[in-house]
Amino acid sequence: MRKTEIAVIGGGPAGLMAALAAAEMGAEVTLVDKNNNLGGQLVKQTHMFFGSEKEHASTRGIDIGKLLAKEAQNHSKIKIMNNSEVIGYYPDDGVIGIEVEEEKFVKLKADKIIIATGASEKFLPFVNNDLPGIYGAGAVQTLMNEHGVVPGNNVLMVGAGNIGLIVSYQLMQAGVNVKAIIDAAPKIGGYLVHASKVARLGVPILTSYSVKAAYPNQITKALERASIWKVDQNWQPIPGTEKVLKVDVLCISVGLSPLAELLWQAGCNMKYVPQLGGHVPTRTNDLETSVTGIYVAGDVAGVEEASSAMIEGRLAGLNAAKSLGYDNGTYEEKHQEALNQLHDLRSGPVGEKIREGISQLVS
Amino acid sequence: MLLQNGIPTTEDLETRIPPKERLAKGPVVMIECFQEIPCNPCNTACKQGAIQEFKDINDKPEIDYDNCTGCGLCVSKCPGLAIFIIDETYSDKEATVSLPYEFLPLPKEGQEVDLLDRGGNKVSQGKVVKIRNGKYEDRTPVITVAVPKELSMVVRNIRVGGDGK
Lengths: 363, 165
Description:
The complex is a heterodimer. Helix content of chain A is 29%, strand content 28%. Chain A has helices at residues 13-25, 61-74, 137-146, 162-173, 192-199, 261-266, 306-323, 331-346, 352-359, and strands spanning 2-9, 29-32, 78-81, 84-90, 95-100, 104-115, 119-121, 134-136, 154-158, 177-183, 205-207, 209-216, 223-230, 243-246, 249-252, 256-258, 270-273, 278-281, 294-296. In chain A, helix 4 links the parallel strand 9 and strand 10 (177-183). Chain B has one domain (2-159). Chain B has helices at residues 2-5, 10-14, 20-23, 41-45; strands spanning 28-31, 83-87, 94-100, 112-116, 122-132, 142-148, 157-159. In chain B, strands 1-2-3-6-5-4-7 form a seven-stranded antiparallel beta sheet, with no helix packed on it. The radius of gyration of chain B is 15 Å and the shape is globular. The two termini of chain B are 26 Å apart. At the A-B interface, helix 5, strand 11 and helix 8 of A face helix 1 and helix 4 of B.
């Protein structure tokens, strides 16, 4: 059995920042990630980030990921286990079970655990939603931005949140035609600057529209057409408003849910909070869950943005290290700074939902 | 409507168009940012004291137009690609619009391109006057294009290799 002071599960923006912050305080950290490359979803974010200079604003997500990964790799206090998927947590003896390289089972025991496993995409029920050509937005990003493969020629994007808008823009950059972006909500959910960016490319955004059905090509059996229809204020479709679009790709981007399995296994007190994407753990302001010694950060603690995930990561890392007695003399200052940054990012109108959600969780 | 289709209305734009007198003096910034989001790199990028410091990071940018020199250093730093430089003094009949353009192929200086409005519709054709695509722009090239003067508040995108329709 391997031992470590702090285990960080997940090497995305939150996990990387958590590992770096804890190591900076002096703790010895093991960072476990199932992918080959660290960075989580950052590896496919080709757009510039928002926020302030402290959160790497104006830098592309992919560059932030590389920057943080390099820092973690070069840090003497951080041991990285990549290609390593945590498949279980055993609360009785506090052991983390890890499958390494899909062949070895390794047991890891940690004094403190920071869970930063992120979120997974929600799906949408409609007729024929399993046809080849129907993707989650994350899969389209992986194909295009990691592997350089376009998913098809003509796309219907479902969901006008930030991810739907950003992936539409990236599809257009890759030379793929986005026929329309639809959203069942009466207004655009993502940042309006992202919406204006795709509007300038001539991509129509249709609010109060939902997918009715997808239709296969008779020979290939892959997606050939999709029909959409208007929905009323109660989200009910209005017959007679159908439009048919000739598309070979339908990309679904209707939100994320926290990947909270390990928190359930650990016996953390969980609560269903729609504003945060699903079941999320109750926690202190310092991101410790109801189980002493288990911290959370990033989307698993509530679906939000990468900028706040990074700061949550830092906060969790600082606190986990401090609870083991580590402080390089800057804990107080850094701890307060992280709390201030989170407050600022969430204080505006677009942070309202997040504030409402978190207020239900913090004890 | 901006909230429904991403296209700002005339009323939205009125809050963001620089004063007439300032436009008559030469290149000046126009920031098409209509929503309070947590973001302030435009202020960080501005070395002229034109884009004011944010009291709250969620504020929309405020501009002291007298301090703006139209240098354009903010254009490639806006994560929302919402900043444009307008020069209505370019020539008798033409203005220039400088805009962020993250598409390939890039046009060449002197090349004729389609001029598009905020909905991506072609409204005219114009010549690319200048391209800034250095280390500073960091893969968000800034294209300056000559446009008919009456379209200085209309043209916000270009299309390279258009069909000339």
